[in-house]
Queue: 3 jobs
Job 1
Amino acid sequence: MPLPWLKMPELWQSRSGCGILDLINYKENGGTRMRTLLKGGSVVSGGGARRLDLLVENEKVAALGRNLKEAADRVVDVSGCFLFPGFIDAHTHFDLEVAGTVTADDFASGSRAALRGGTTTVIDFACPDRGESLQSGLSRWHGKAEGKTFCDYGFHMTIDDWNESVRNELPDMFAQGISSFKMYMTYPAMMLGDRDLYWALKELKRLGGICGVHCENAGVIDGMIAEKKAAGALSPASHPATRPPWLEAEAVARLLRIAQTADCPVVIVHLTNGEALREVQRARRRGQTVYVETCPQYLLLDESLYNSKAFSDAARYVCAPPLREKGEQDVLWKALRHGDIQTVSTDHCAFTLEQKAMGLEDFTRIPGGLPGAETRGELIWSFGVARRKISAAQMCRLLSENPARLYGLFPRKGTLQPGGDADIVVYDPSGSRIIRGEDSVSAAGYSPYEGFATSGVIRQVWLRGCLSVEDGTVLEQPPHGRYLVRGKCSL
Ligand code: MN
């Protein structure tokens, strides 16, 4: 396989001398083993944290143990640090056309931002246009990602149309490693009606697939937007006003009754509020399997940000569902602590402030979405673990183990066990940094968490045994993220 960048080894050699070139050289020299020993850290799993040394051999975890004496080519002192299985972000949108523009982050900048944040696997959304085959949409997404993605990646498949040909294509999707799907109850270009949601879920039940659903009541939101427009209330403050939490809760309740009818488990993506969560709990009490995802923005930011005087200060937070009242944050943190919410992903969908300005005269034209892949790990540690709202083990479940199980990647991903991929986040709880948009890797050019002080920092990120981030810097390396063929849900 021709690798043009091999001609420039000095450029790709990482400071610590264990970059991808070392791995490739070792392989080319007759498969010699490259062994790295991470010594003195605490290895975190969903069950707790234990003082263990960790031996990496080429791309895999080879052994864990107290005071490992195994011979290694290199020993890395990680004492005082927590070693997490590489984080999985199961909700990103890179290189996506939205509202007449394209997200600021493509698979290159988006995946570098993700790596910076300890995310070694993203699951993005392949979104075929209506009328386009799933296969064609999937090929387009492979084209966007292949050869330019810096972390490992998979795709959920968006179902924005339901008919015989879509139904017939579904088994091919599973065969190509896609076991999870996405449906929308809002957005005219993508939403499905109740009948199609029902039929699609019924078919996914038969095939053993899992589906994430964006739950908001489209019709009433449309009506409220029309009223705001008629009244000339076109500023970003109208955005949360037209998408109230109870219209999310209504859609969650309706979806769950549809899922009950189809007898199919579902994932509620980006859940934002207690009313919606109560609908989930009701469904669980009647025996349904419901998984819930929330995002850092709903845990840490609130709707008062939409009232900023300057347009760009408010528009930067426009996303759907919108940020909620501050009181909802406690509800969500409690739900994380009690295990009512299974995953925290980001819904990373970045636009520059220049792009956000498309909606200067009309809030409905502001491209919706926030950058978040880069800061999730440090934020969840700082405002969750360090403040004793959740434990390190819970953080591991939310960011690594549960998404790996839910989306068919476990135990290759989501856990640090012999035989699994050596995707490792070395978290140093003693460090701290101030989050600044100007320091960020994402092409958004701003951070929604500007000025937030972290407790602890990500010191290193290893992707399949290759040191990829050190002290906040993504090391200069060619993109070597791999497409992940995923199996079925095991959560
Ligand atoms: Mn999304």
Job 2
Amino acid sequence: MTAKSMDELVALAKRRGFIFQSGDIYGGLQGVYDYGPLGVELKNNLKAAWWRAMVYERDDVEGLDAAILTNPAVLRHSGHEATFTDPMIDCRACKSRWRADHLDQQKCPGCGSDDLTEPRPFNLMFQTQVGPVDDGSSFAYLRPETAQAIFTNFKNVTDSTSPKLPFGIAQIGKAFRNEITPRNFIFRVREFEQMELEFFVTPGEDESWHETWVASRLKWWHEQGVDASRLELYHVPSDELAHYSKATVDVMYRFPHGLEELEGIANRTDFDLGSHTKNQQDFAIHAKVEPNKDTNAKLVMQDLESKQWRVPYVIEPSAGVDRGVLAVMNEAYRVETLENGSERTVMGFKPHLAPIKVAVLPLKRNHSGIVAKAKAIKKELQALGLGRILYEDTGNIGKGYRRHDEVGTPLCVTVDFQTVEEDGTVTVRDRDTMAQQRVPADTLADYVVANIKG
Ligand code: ATP
């Protein structure tokens, strides 16, 4: 089961503190969202799962965290200044602007008029002034993808880590695109995060690595709780390919508003490294400086057998964090009718993604023995390093359970009189089955690790 509509997810996201319209007390800013107390946990958990799979569980990938502000030369030579555009049309009747390739019919979605201009390219990159003098000579771009900094740091990383092909550089971070029509909640926004891997391979091995990565990324999305029946692969036709791509396979997900791209896996060939190698040498010649021996950016690798220096090819799995959060929330959402006819909403997140792993609830908030024991349990469980453990003394256990169902907390632990006066056991209540069982407090940590990590 998933949400019936985007509205259900938007409402839950706001009600429970996952996602808010940014600056909403002033009417918001279109295409910009903020992550609230639970949203930040969910998002961090998704990013951590990606980092684990892409960096820690492999020995051929290094990480990077590069700057957002980008020297315009980088995005000139990557081709973004010239070609990172979407086709835009204007409605002459109501003056609204639309993305031409998103129109179903040649009519304005705002007022229905067919008095539209011809499409023209609109560059999606944001610019900002750098330094105190605003004379137009000194500006930077907010990066439209995290990938470019991986290419421009290629030599820095390879010099400092001495990898052998194939190897990758991974990065998670913000990207900015001045989308003509941001829409569908956090699906298409102007400020978002990407999780990108640039995996460098020997030319000729690129096509088989491309297939390997497509399969591996599909598997990873399944592991995040995304059902295979709502994922599809789209082999992007050649006339739709980005300027750098030889082949792209999009992982499409059935979002509440339709089947759309969740992740793109592109074969970027040697386009970027090749272009930056060539252009930084031209840059050095024009600037009349010797290419710095330390940073001379020949972005190449030596083939250990043939001893030839070659620009490697690169396979790029590029996933949107926000689209991932939306997919994971949609998958987790379910409404159940209970035996007594009442309904409960459950966010059935995989435990590793759940914003709160365990809620510890004292049965009585004014009973010092129960409170002290509950606080000690919270502290002990928190020290396990599994993520957020919440101590919560609202005093109404039933309501607490329902609230934690709705935010997807896998386990609730209740400390009561029996715990402190009789046998030292606590009640552990399972989010999915609603089953409750007594577990000795002194083996609770093992129980939690087994259930949350697994
Ligand atoms: P679309 O065709 O939907 O505009 P794209 O093909 O331009 O996306 P890529 O350049 O391949 O997207 O970017 C890689 C990933 O970054 C996408 O798969 C998506 O998850 C995410 N992404 C791109 N643009 C946005 C956006 N405006 N809002 C949220 N996520 C985005």
Job 3
Amino acid sequence: MTTIRSVVLGCGSYLPEHILTNAELASRIDTSDEWIVQRTGIRQRHIAAPGEFTSHLAIKAAKAALANAGVDAQSIDLIVLATSTPDNTFPATAVSVQNGLGINHGAAFDLQAVCSGFIFALATADNFLRTGAFKRALVIGAETFSRILDWNDRGTCVLFGDGAGALVLDAQPQQGNTSDRGVLTTHLRSDGRHKMKLYVDGGPSSTQSVGHLRMEGREVFKHAVGMITDVIEDAFKATNTGPNDIDWLVPHQANKRIIDASAQKLHIAPQKVVLTVDSHGNTSAASIPLALSVAVADKRIKPNDLVMLEAMGGGFTWGSALVRW
Ligand code: ACO
């Protein structure tokens, strides 16, 4: 039976020029390269320049994705942008991106699910494309987390970085089985009982200020592996696939220890795991499309490869998506 799938036409990314190394951080606060690498796998992160906003990163990533897909911006009728660091409280950063791309038809909106934002945005766009509401979508993850970090809190400021990544999705008829190209299944979860374990201590309604990121790192770590593996297993079950069927696991890049433990629990071979946390840090909603762009550019991910995406983050929120490239 023919079905409509959201097929990936291309992907792209953008990282700010300035690189902040662990050694530079260690010269400012009481930390060390050894501590950061051993606990997280992070060696460096990119930091947006003064005046460089989330929308600027997103526009550059979107243009790279459109070029990679070989399609014109005017063919896009939906933009879903995942971010927790919008340019302004409103309007949505997505409309600045839409305007920056010279598009004034269709719809553009932001979506906020913190580090799981890209998976939630992908699932949202996929549902709109499959119903026929829109035909071609840009799904973007873009963040300037450097702006919400407490640079005196060594427990959090060493973990995050700035960046953006984007995918172009196209509604295309497919056969309706797991050999199809495109998004095969998505699984989204959240549990607000954990909302104070990773949060920003400000906002328009509560403090009328932006606030800073606060985190109980051990609590996040404790829940992360179980949540990630559960939702990947949901994707396996829904598609009657397993760890041996996937070509690549492209996880949210929070922490190498969380990624390694999740892959090991699921019996996914380490050589199938795409890792960029060492050079990007945790870029929240941007980390998955940034990692995808790296693995597509270096030709690891090829057309028809089966790619598992997963993320977990503030809320808590978590989710997975299985995509045939
Ligand atoms: N440099 C040196 N020492 C540090 C640093 C630092 N940057 N940060 C904390 N410490 C110290 C602490 O002060 C503490 O010292 P003490 O024992 O004298 O009190 C010691 O290191 C241990 O602190 P913990 O917070 O218990 O360290 P832990 O081993 O849990 O590692 C970490 C911290 C890396 C944050 C870990 O808990 C973790 O990875 N958690 C997951 C959080 C995460 O990845 N969040 C990302 C967002 S959520 C997501 O994207 C999934």
